[in-house]
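pipeline/complex-builder :: batch 7 item 3
reading input block
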Amino acid sequence: MFATRTPLRLSDVVIRAAIVGLALATGYIHLTLGGLLFTLNAIGYFTAAAAMVVPLALAVRFRWFIRVGLIGYAATTIVAWAIQGPYFQLAYIAKGIEVALIAMLVIDFARMDGNPVDVIKRELANLNGFVAKVRGTAGASA
Amino acid sequence: MKRVIQAMALAGLATLTVACSSGGGSTAAPSAAPSASAGASADAGSGVTVVAKDIAFSPTAITLPADTATPVVLDNQEAAPHNIAIKDAAGTQVFKGDIVTQQKITYNVGPLAAGSYTFWCEVHPNMTGTVTVQ
C-alpha cells in the first residue's frame, strides 16, 4: 500500500514543498471568495496538494500524472479568469501564485520524470503490457 | 499552516507588479442606512443601500431617479469580496464599482436613462438584482 521511498535530495524536497505551499495558498484564496465554484476550485487545489506528497503507492506511481493534472488545472483556472475576470488585486495575487505553481511543477516534472514524450511512451508500453496480461488471463480461464 | 499560507500569499504579492484595475467611481465614505429587503428607492442625492451577505444582495430590487447621478452604497458584511456593476437591458455595462471586502462603500452612479437595468457582483455573477430607473 505504501510506496518504497526513493531518497529525495534537499532540492527535491524544497521544490515539492513549494508546490504544496503554492497550491494551498491559491486554494485558500479561492476558499475565501465564497460561492460554490470557488469552493470547489479550492477543494481541487487542496486535493492536488495532498496527492503531491501522500506516500501511497498508487499516488507515487502516477505522480507524473498528478503533476500534469495540476498544471492543467492551474492553467484552466488562469484562462477562465482571463476570459471572465473579475480583475482585482486578490485575483492578480492568486494568478501570480498559479503561474509560479505551474513553473515549479514543470521543473519538478523535468527533474523527476524527464522527457514527457518518454513518459508517454513508457506509460503506453505499460498499458499495452497490462492489456496483454489481462487478455492472457481471460484466455487461460476460458 | 495558516501562517505559511499567508506568507505564500504575501510572497506572491511581492512578486507581482500588476496593479489592480478598477473602473468605478467610488468613495469609501459611509452613507445612508440600510433599506428594506424587498426593495429600495432613492431620491436624487439621498442614495440607496444594498447589503451583501451570504453571497446574496439585499434588497434585490432598487429604484433610482432617471437622468440624475445617485449615490449607491454597498454594505459588504462578509469576508468574500463583492462589488456592484450595472448593465442595461442590452447587456452593456454602464457602471462598475470597486470590489471591497467587509466594507461599506459609496458608489457614485452616473445619470442613467429611464428603463430597467440589472446589477450584479462581478466576483459572484449569480448575485444579481434589478435596477428600475424612473
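note: Chain B touches chain A through 25 residues (CB under 8 Å).
queue -> next item
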